[in-house]
Amino acid sequence: MDNFELEVLRFVKEWDLVREGQRILVAVSGGKDSMALLNVLNNLKSTLKIELFAANLNHGLREEGPQEEARMIEQFCEDRFIDFFHEKRDVREYMRTKKGESIESAAREVRYGFLRDVKSMIGADRIALGHNRDDLVENTLLRLVKGTGMKGVIGLRPSNGDLIRPLLFSDMQRIIDYVTINKVTFMEDETNAEDGFERNFLRLRVIPELRKINPALNKAIWRFFENIYDGYSLIDSRVETLMSRFGKADGIYFAKLSELREIEKPLILELVRKIVSMMSFDNYPPSRQRALAFFDLFSKDEGRWTVEFKENLKASRIGKYVFFYRGTLEFHGHEKSFIESIPFVCEAEGWQIKVESKAGISSENYGEFDGAFKSICSDSRIIFPLSIRGMNNKDKIIPFGMKREKKVVDILSDKGLKGFSSMIMVLENAFGEILWIPGVVTSELCRVGPSSRNNVVFSLERR
C-alpha cells in the first residue's frame, strides 16, 4: 500500500464514506481520476472489507473513444475479478424531452440515472465518484459566479446521500503521479482540451490567472469549503429536525401552516430548497427568487395560493396546510374495503385503521375519545357489512353534537382540510349511514347512551 492509498484510506475513515460489508459501485469514465479511484479501492477492498463493482456509460456524444474506453475498463476489471457494467444512452435524445437544458446538465442527469439503475440492480450501498480537489475548485468558482448559496458551495462534498468522493482531498497532479508510478491504464477524453464548455473555460482560462494571485488556490478553496460546510451543517441539522413536521403520502409533502410560521426565514427558505431538491429529478434546489416567492405568500395570512418551481413542482396553501406536489394535488383514493366482522384492521399509506369491540366503557374514559382519531360508537349502529371507502362530493354526515346533516366537503373546508379531499375515507354501515370520517369527525348517530353496554371503538393511528 503506497502513501497515496494510505491517504485515501484516512480520508475515507475521516468522512465515514464506506462501512464494512458494503457494496460500492465505482463510476468509471476511463480517465485518470476514475481509473485511479478504481485501482485504489480495489487495493483497499480487503482492508475496508467491501465489495467492488464498476460501471461505465457511453453518452452517445462522441463517435470515437467510448467503445475503446469501455473495452479498456472491462479488461482492467476482468483482470481483477471486478464485475463491470456498461451501457449506451442517448443524451441528445434525452435533451429533446428537456427543452432549454444544457448538454452538460443533460449528460449528468443521464449518467446518474444509469448509475442508480445499476446500483439498484446489484443492491449497492454507495456510488463512488472520482472527483478531486481540482474539480472542487472549478465547481465552487462556477457556482459563485452564478450566485450560489451555502448549499451550492458545498454541493461537491465527500459524502452526499448515496454518492461518495474518496479522492476529494487530492489535487489532480497527485492522481497523475499515482497512475504513472503504478502504471494504471487510462484514456484521455479529447473534449477536456476544448474551452467551449463553461467548466473547461474555467479550467483553461480563468484558474491559471487566479493561481498567479495565489499559487495555493486548491488549499484556499478547500479551507473555504470546510468553513462553509461547518456553518451549513448546523442549518442542515435544524432543517432535518423541522422536516419531521411534514407528513408524506403519495409523493406529496404537507404540513400545518401554524407549525411552520414560528420558524425563522432562513430556515423556511432552506426547507423549501430541501423539499424541492428531494422531489426534483436532478436533485437541484429552486432559485432564490422562487424560494422568496414562496416565503412572501407563506408569511401573509391570505387565502389559497400556489407557487410554481420547476419540473411542474408546486407548493400550495389550501386551508390550514401547505402542500408540495407535482402536477395536480391529488392523493390516491382508498379502495373500498368491506368489514364482515370485528376486530378489523386495515392499512392506508402511513396509517392504520382499527375497528374493535369495547365493553364496559365508563363516562370517566370518554375524555380519551376525540371523535377524529379515536371514537366510540354504540353497537346498535354497527350493521354489517360495514365498509370503508373514499369520500365523494355528495357524502353527508350528522356531525357529533349537531342535529342536521352537513356535506363532508364543507366540514373539511371548515377544518382547513380541503387539500386532503382525495385521501379522506368514510366508514359507513350496511344502510349507507356514515358513522365516522377517520381523522375528521364522528357521526351523532354513534352517540353512546348511559344504558349502552356494548360499544365499538374506531381508531386511526400512525404506523
UniProtKB/TrEMBL annotation:
Reactions catalysed according to its record: cytidine(34) in tRNA(Ile2) + L-lysine + ATP = lysidine(34) in tRNA(Ile2) + AMP + diphosphate + H(+)
Subcellular location as annotated: Cytoplasm
One term under GO cellular component: cytoplasm
GO MF entry, a single one: ATP binding
Annotated EC: 6.3.4.19
UniProt cross-references to Gene3D superfamilies, sorted A to Z: HUPs (3.40.50.620)
Residue span, tRNA(Ile)-lysidine/2-thiocytidine synthase N-terminal domain: 24-203
Enzyme class: ligase
Protein keywords: ATP-binding, Cytoplasm, Ligase, Nucleotide-binding, tRNA processing
Family label: Belongs to the tRNA(Ile)-lysidine synthase family.
HAMAP family recorded: tRNA_Ile_lys_synt
Domain notes: The N-terminal region contains the highly conserved SGGXDS motif, predicted to be a P-loop motif involved in ATP binding.
Function of the molecule: Ligates lysine onto the cytidine present at position 34 of the AUA codon-specific tRNA(Ile) that contains the anticodon CAU, in an ATP-dependent manner. Cytidine is converted to lysidine, thus changing the amino acid specificity of the tRNA from methionine to isoleucine.
Name of this chain's protein: tRNA(Ile)-lysidine synthase
Naturally occurring in which organism (per UniProt): Mesotoga prima MesG1.Ag.4.2
Gene (UniProt): tilS
